[in-house]
Amino acid sequence: MSDMTRMADNDRFARHVGVELLEISPGRAKARLTIADHHLNGAGMVHGGAIFTLADLVFAAACNSHGTLAVAINAHIAYLKAAAGGTLTAQAEEVSLNPRLATYAIAVRDDAGDLVATFQGMCYRKKEKVPG
Questions:
Q1: What is the tens place of the pLDDT at every residue in 55-113?
Q2: What is the pLDDT of residue 8?
Q3: Mean pLDDT of 16-21
Q4: DSSP 9-46
Q5: Number of domains in the chain
Q6: What is the mean pLDDT of the chain?
Q7: Which of 2, 16, 60, 86 sits at 20 to 30 Å (Cα–Cα) from 131?
Q8: Chain-centre distance of CA 71, in angstroms?
Q9: Cα-flanking dihedrals φ and ψ of residue 5, to 5°?
């Protein structure tokens, strides 16, 4: 098990919510969330916080995939379509990588492949290695 996989598995909040990391490679990551009743808001749709958590986990995994510890300094999400059930999948792609900063684009899709949300994040790459 890689240090990054171990780090993602240690994300107790994402684990509590039910986010499952599927893939990780340099600059990329993929995860899914199977929607349960506790993921729904008062209107019966998937809560924005659950969608953000899914996107944030793949962002963190992709940021740290090079082995250098990275922390978020900016994140933005746009909700494009309501989701009410099924499974959501998020995929992160590296947009830019510099010694201290990196930017990632994340797409969150439903079972039909429709875009539910887009997330853009920037991380600060610290001097230390990913703990493991």
A1: 999 999 999 999 999 999 999 999 999 999 999 999 999 999 999 999 999 999 999 99
A2: 64
A3: 94
A4: HT-HHHHHHTEEEEEEETTEEEEEEE--GGGB-TTSSB
A5: 1
A6: 94
A7: 16
A8: 13
A9: -65, -40
Q: How far is it, in rounded angstroms, from Cα 50 to Cα 127?
A: 31
Interatomic CA distance for residues 103 and 4, integer angstroms: 18
CATH for 75: 3.10.129.10
Q: Which two tokens stand for residue 37?
A: 């009743």
DSSP string, 102-126: EEEEEEEE-TT--EEEEEEEEEEEE
Are 46 and 19 spatial neighbours (Cβ–Cβ below 8 Å)? no
Q: Cα dihedral angle (67, 97, 125, 65), rounded to 10 degrees?
A: -20
The closest of 84, 69, 85, 31 to 53, measured between CA atoms, is: 31
Residues 6+ apart with CB under 8 A from 33: 17, 18, 19, 20, 39, 50, 53, 54, 87, 88, 90
Range of the domain at 112: 3-129
